[in-house]
Every structure is written in C-alpha cells, then in structure tokens.
Design goal:
By secondary structure, this protein is α/β, with parallel strands linked by helices. It has 2 domains: about 5-75 and about 230-300, HUPs (Rossmann fold, 3-Layer(aba) Sandwich), CATH 3.40.50; about 90-180, Glutamyl-tRNA Synthetase, domain 3. It is about 30% helix and about 15% strand. A 3-stranded parallel beta sheet has the order 1-2-3, covered by helices on one side. β6 (about 150-155) and β7 form a beta hairpin.
Length: about 300
Amino acid sequence: MIGYTGRLAPSPTGALHLGNARTFMVAWLRARSCGGKIVFRMEDLDHPRDKPGAAAAAVEDLRWLGFDWDEEYVQSRRRNVYRAALAQLDAYPCVCSRSDVERAQSAPHAGEQLHYPGTCRGRFPTWAAAAKACAPRIPCWRFRVPRDATVEFNDVFAGRYVQDVWRTLGDFPLARDPDGAGYTLAATVDDALMGVTEAVRGDDLLPATPPQILVAKALGRTPPAYCHVPLVVGPDGRRLAKRHGDTRIASFREAGVKPEAVLGWLAWTCGWNAKKEPTRLKSLVGRCPLNTIPREAVVWGGSLT
C-alpha cells in the first residue's frame, strides 16, 4: 500500500474505552505495517456533548498505549474550511426536529436511519431565516440528494455495500451549524484535504458512509477506501457504556495495569495473539492481518485475563 495515509479521529464526547482503542489499534497498525503516514484529528465539533478535558485525556491515553502520529489537527480550528466547502454544495437549511421527521415516516425505519421527505426544500432563502423560524432551536444544513443516488462500494473489511440514499435517507443532514461545521461534512472534507487513503472505523458507521461518498464526489474529491471493523460490546450486545463496568483506558492506567496488558487483550480479540499475553503495540507491526479479525462483535467479559 504505497502512499498510504490513515487517521486516528477521536471525539471528546467521552473517555477513550477498550472499543475505541481496538479500532484505533487496527487503524494505526494498518498504516505502520506498510510504512504509511498517520493523521491525528480531534473531532471536537459536537459541542453539546463534548466533555471538558476529554480531548487532552484521549491524547494521554493513546500515548500511554504507544500510539504516535505524523500530523495533528483540531476540527474546531478549521471552521473556515468547512464554510468554504458548504458553499460548493447544493444544501439548504432545515428546521425539522427529529420528532418531525419521525412523524413524517411513510414506513417503519430501522435503528438511527430516518428518511427525510424534503419538507424544507425551498422553504427558507437563508440560514438566518430558518434560524428565526425555529428559535431557540438551531436549524441544520441538508444535502439535496438526487433521486437516482445509489451508492455502491467495497468495504475493505465488510465487503460490498449498497445503499439507495434517496430511498433510505432522503436529504440527509450535513451539520447543525451555520458554517457547516458538523460530522458528515467536516469528516468528509478533512479526509480529502488531509490525503487520507483509508478510513478505519467501527462498523456502526457503515450506513453513514454512502452520504459521505456523495458529499466527497459533489466536492470533486475522491473518497478514501473504508474499512469498518466490528465493535466491542457488552453482554447485552450494545456498545460499551457505564452499564458494562468501567472499560476506560484511564481507569486501567490508574489501577496500575500495564499498557501491554491492555494491548495484549486487544490483540487477542483480533486473532493476533494466541493468548491474552502482554504485547507492545510496535511488536504487532507487520503481523496484523485483517482476515483473523472475527466478523462478529467482541463481547467484553469483564476482565483482561
């Protein structure tokens, strides 16, 4: 993989836990195993959910585990970049709440994917007009999706994925911000401008990928390859949370656990260690094939041993 550029993109909405670390480990090893570059990007645009000190804590946790990177960015400092990209897109302001969209459903929907019927298409001439109409709530920018917008791509891990974006999502949200500084637009723009060739992330984001591919193409950019790997979940099958016990990397460190013990468990879940034995991150470079990673989610059993 000549010219490979990967990325680590934590969000300061909470503490780094075992599931995050596992995905970042796959991403880091994919890059380092082929002599590639790694971009570190703090995705701190979800301001209502951002936790004070979480960004610095994530960096500390990753450094403790042995991660390094070649370039570093903070999304909240790049608003002018997202504003310029938004101006190139066919987008419009929307005042509909999630409840409004749910009430407008013509058929049952699954999970987080709601179909938006285009209620606000052509309704407001400017963001300011939309903001005035829905105050004190904030409007969102929606991408005007062509009716023939079916996206098909081959995920590096998950395989072929097809989504009829118009029928599944309709006009999807880009950002709830006047400058377009939100996840869908910002991550797409940054992957392109930072030269990311492969984005490794959790498979919960697989359905969100076709919209990002549409945005990239609308901006005249080539999207990266995507590699969606299974999550670490609790015994109830849900993503890791407080109800599953304390799986924060900081808690392991504070309890005197060595980083090699955490990495050894993570490597074992990927099939790179035969046992849950202590392992250094750099020792896994070059011996981290994707085909040993289980296709199903990893269930946290409550112990690293």
